[in-house]
Design goal:
With 274 residues, the protein is an alpha/beta fold. 22% of the residues lie in helices and 25% in strands. Strand 15 and strand 16 form a beta hairpin. The longest helix has 14 residues, at 39-52. The radius of gyration is 17 Å and the shape is globular.
Length: 274
C-alpha cells in the first residue's frame, strides 16, 4: 500500500514553508501536567506565539508524542488548538501515542497524508512507532513505501519526517531509544542523493547535524526539554519550542528555531524520569 498523498502549493518563488511542532504530550484533563509542566498550557502558549509571529508557513508537521495518556480527548484537544493556526496539519505517531485513538485527529480536520508533493519537493512522513516500546522500528512496509515514493519523483528534493532519531544525538540514555533499524533506512535512501533532510522529534531538544550530505534536525518539545549531551535522564530549563522550515526551489533547507521567551514552564527538578 502506497502512502496517502497530498499535493501542496508552493510560494511564488517555488519554496515550501513549513511549521514543525512535536512532543506536545497532552492529556484529556487540561489541568494535568508532565514532570511539573502543564502540557496543555505550554502548547497553548506556543500556539499563541506562533499566531503572533510574522514568519510564514503554509503546512504543519506534527511529529509524534501528541498525547501522553493516549485518550481520544487528548487528540481532540490537539486538533482544536492546531486548528487555530488555520493551516493544514499532518501527523505522525510517537512512542507515547495510540494510533487507534489518533483517528480522532482526522475527525477534527488533521490530515492523514504521509506524502506531500510540491513542484520541487516531496515530504515523506515515516511511521517509526513500535507499540509499547520507547525505541523505534521502521517496518518493511514503511521501507517499501519509502523506496516507492523516492523512485516516483527522482527529480524532486526530499524531506523526510519521523519521530525517532536515526543518528545519535549524544545523550546516552536517549540514544538507546533510537530507530533500531536505521541501517535499513539508510540503505533505502543511499541511492537517492536528492534526500536533503530528515526532521524528527522524540529527543525534546534542538539538534542540527550534517551527515553524508543530509541535514538531520530535531525540534524541541512544546512542553518539557531534555538536557543535551546527558548520559542519564536530565531535564533542561530551556523553554518550549517549535521550528519553521523553508524548502527552497534549489533544494536548500533554511530553518528558524523559536522558543517561548518568558521562563513560564519550568520542570520539577526532582523528576527522575517518566
Amino acid at each position: 500500500m502506497a502512502f496517502n498523498k497530498l499535493n501542496i502549493n508552493t510560494a511564488p518563488d517555488g519554496s515550501v514553508h513549513l511549521l514543525q511542532v512535536t512532543d506536545t504530550h497532552l492529556f484529556a484533563d487540561e489541568q494535568t501536567g508532565l514532570l511539573g509542566v502543564n502540557t496543555n498550557d505550554s502548547f497553548g502558549a506556543v500556539i499563541e506565539n506562533i499566531k503572533s509571529d510574522n514568519i510564514p508557513f503554509d503546512y504543519i508537521l506534527a511529529t509524534g508524542d501528541l498525547s501522553q495518556d493516549h485518550t481520544k480527548r487528548s487528540y481532540q484537544r490537539f486538533a482544536e488548538r492546531i486548528a487555530e493556526l488555520e493551516r493544514p496539519c499532518v501527523w505522525l505517531p510517537g512512542n507515547h501515542d495510540m494510533q487507534e485513538n489518533m483517528l480522532t485527529l482526522e475527525q477534527h480536520g488533521v490530515l492523514a497524508a504521509k506524502q506531500l508533493v510540491s513542484e520541487h519537493w516531496q515530504i515523506i512522513m515515516l511511521d517509526t512507532q513500535l507499540e509499547g516500546e520507547p525505541h523505534g522500528i521502521m517496518s518493511q512496509r514503511q521501507l517499501d513505501n519509502l523506496a516507492e515514493a523516492l523512485a516516483e519523483y527522482p527529480d524532486k528534493h526530499v524531506l523526510i519526517a519521523m519521530h525517532h532519531q536515526a543518528i545519535p544525538v549524544g545523550s546516552k540514555w536517549l540514544d538507546q531509544h533510537n530507530l533500531k533499524n536505521a541501517d535499513e533506512f539508510f540503505a533505502v535512501i543511499a541511492d537517492f542523493p536528492n534526500v536533503r533532510g530528515v526532521i524528527f522529534g522524540h529527543v525534546h531538544q534542538n539538534y542540527e547535524f550534517q551527515f553524508d550530505g543530509i541535514a538531520f534536525i530535531a525540534t524541541p518539545s512544546t512542553c518539557i526539554q531534555f538536557l543535551p549531551l546527558s548520559a542519564n535522564f536530565a531535564l533542561d530549563h530551556q523553554q518550549p519550542g517549535w521550528r519553521y522550515l523553508q524548502l527552497t526551489a534549489e533544494g536548500r533547507i533554511a530553518t528558524r528555531l523559536r522558543r517561548l521567551s518568558e521562563r513560564s514552564f519550568l520542570p520539577d527538578p526532582k523528576s527522575k524520569g517518566y
